[in-house]
Backbone:
């Protein structure tokens, strides 16, 4: 966790949608083996930051460095071939492809030699997907789609996994399953995870470190437990208690 | 009955050619949601490329059969490759710079590309009809006209067999490519969610280019078949063939690959039967009327499926 160079280094990133500035100079570091979360309200810019790391949209100012390489202005498909994978907002399952085909799409960037092994691994993590492998993505339930989105991202054997709101709209028991899976991937395989969440309690409990984002600016950062203990975080993001 | 059989054979042959062109329309529509109006002209270019190759190689009906078959396969492959370059170029020059622009923009450049191709061929090849002596003649007589020789003689020519068999083989190969290979999966992924495809490392621009390349290659096959079957082409054949193939794609359900094949076959059959039993003059009216009727009752086309998705 304390290796000298961060795996992902974000410096002064500003991203715009037309004239509207969504990110106003973001600095963030993610070290190898960490789970880092960004919490914040709707529209704070969390997803935008995640998409900016992937180059869609690209940052107008600032730098994104991954494994020592500046990737700010690389095309998205090239960034995704360097070991970054994303399970995006809204899951974006290919609706008219089967579960298995969706997973094959995830493995596009690999040379195919580890395909069987990776498939077995994600089926072990989410046994539900194995039962549904011949079914079309669009007919899965929300929780199954979320599992598929994460599994698809894992099929590329990422070093850095970006997860955008994996708990959105899911029943608490499914949320627990998914968070357990993330934890397992991190502890067992040493996978580095960047997690965007509105479910601040779960996210901060899981993460090693967290950032709080408000209107395109990072306002606080610290370890997960530090942030959980802060009164202002509790007031703003944990209203209504743990859920 | 014999007359019916003959019309059926003719209709399937014509439908095969339409089907091959229709695939290009439907695939491009599927992946970038635009009608490539220049596709009919790509078919025309394919026919001209094939003609130039045949003349260059000096092929004629006098060429020994074995050599002729070999040479025609060579012509087929070269015509596909060269026409594919044209298809790629049109996409690169006329459509890619406008990606992300408003929806009508690429439609307008498509019409421009169509006019450009027509005029280029007209100027470089001349405006007159280009005839080609039949290279492959003869065939089977399926009926002999009855005992007194007054009945209808049903002919199945070698050329018709070649067209139908080639079409079936290509469509089978193509269906496999789309459904089972990694390239086909990338194409379907781009169709369904281009941004997500890029997030999985798919080079979207390259995949779109390849779609144009494949559509153009199939159109070139149709062009060669058209040339060999009818024995005459000109710079304007792409217009009507293009409109018919586009109709076929819409009839079958635009965006659907089996739909394009089915639509092509149906348009070919409708036209041929109408010409055979009613009047040749109104065959286009018949084809377009059927299209209108089908679209009234099935707006998605015959095989276009309405979306079944959970959110």
Residues:
């Amino acid at each position: 966790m304390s290796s000298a160079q961060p795996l992902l280094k974000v410096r002064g990133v500003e991203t715009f949608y037309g004239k509207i500035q969504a990110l106003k100079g973001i600095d963030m570091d993610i070290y190898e083996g960490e789970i880092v979360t960004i919490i914040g309200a709707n529209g704070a810019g969390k997803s935008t930051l995640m998409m900016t790391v992937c180059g869609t949209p690209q940052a107008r100012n600032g730098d994104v460095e991954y494994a020592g390489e500046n990737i700010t202005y690389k095309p998205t498909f090239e960034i995704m071939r360097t070991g970054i994978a994303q399970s995006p907002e809204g899951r974006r399952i290919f609706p008219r492809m089967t579960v298995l085909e969706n997973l094959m799409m995830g493995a596009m960037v690999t040379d195919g030699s580890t395909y069987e092994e990776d498939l077995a691994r994600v089926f072990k993590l989410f046994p539900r997907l194995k039962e549904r492998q011949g079914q079309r993505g669009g007919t899965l339930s929300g929780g199954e789609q979320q599992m598929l989105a994460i599994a698809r991202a894992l099929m590329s054997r990422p070093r850095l996994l970006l997860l955008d709101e994996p708990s959105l709209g899911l029943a608490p028991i499914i949320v627990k399953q998914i968070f357990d899976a993330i934890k397992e991937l991190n502890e067992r395989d040493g996978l580095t995870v960047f997690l965007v969440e509105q479910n601040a309690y779960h996210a901060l409990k899981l993460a090693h470190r967290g950032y709080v984002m408000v209107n395109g600016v990072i306002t606080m950062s610290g370890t997960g437990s530090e942030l959980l203990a802060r009164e202002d975080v509790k007031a703003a993001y944990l209203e209504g208690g743990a859920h | 009955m014999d007359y019916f059989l003959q019309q059926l054979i003719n209709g399937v042959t014509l439908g095969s050619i339409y089907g091959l062109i229709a695939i290009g329309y439907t695939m491009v529509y599927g992946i970038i949601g635009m009608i490539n109006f220049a596709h009919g002209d790509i078919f025309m270019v394919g026919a001209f490329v094939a003609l130039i190759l045949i003349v260059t190689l000096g092929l004629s009906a006098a060429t020994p059969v074995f050599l002729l078959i070999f040479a025609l396969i060579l012509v087929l492959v070269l015509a596909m490759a060269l026409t594919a370059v044209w298809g790629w170029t049109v996409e690169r020059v006329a459509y890619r710079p406008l990606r992300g622009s408003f929806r009508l923009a690429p439609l307008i450049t498509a019409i421009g590309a169509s006019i450009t191709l027509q005029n280029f061929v007209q100027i470089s090849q001349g405006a007159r009809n280009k005839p080609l002596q039949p290279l492959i003649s003869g065939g089977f007589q399926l009926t002999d006209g009855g005992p007194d020789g007054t009945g209808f003689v049903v002919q199945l020519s070698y050329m018709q067999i070649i067209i139908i068999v080639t079409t079936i083989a290509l469509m089978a190969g193509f269906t496999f490519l789309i459904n089972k290979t990694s390239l086909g999966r990338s194409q379907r992924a781009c169709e369904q969610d281009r941004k997500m495809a890029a997030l999985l490392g798919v080079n979207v621009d390259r995949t779109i280019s390849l779609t144009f390349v494949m559509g153009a290659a199939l159109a070139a096959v149709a062009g060669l078949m058209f040339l060999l079957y009818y024995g005459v082409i000109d710079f304007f054949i792409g217009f009507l063939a293009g409109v018919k193939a586009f109709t076929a794609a819409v009839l079958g359900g635009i965006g659907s690959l089996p739909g394009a094949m089915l639509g092509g076959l149906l348009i070919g059959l409708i036209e041929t039967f109408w010409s055979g039993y009613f009047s040749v003059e109104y065959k286009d009216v018949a084809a377009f009327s059927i299209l209108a009727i089908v679209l009234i009752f099935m707006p998605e086309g015959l095989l276009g499926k309405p979306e079944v998705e959970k959110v």
Remarks:
- Residues 1 and 272 of chain B are 15 Å apart (CA to CA).
- Residues 2-122+155-297 of chain B form a domain with the ABC transporter involved in vitamin B12 uptake, BtuC fold (CATH 1.10.3470).
- Chain B has a mean pLDDT of 91.
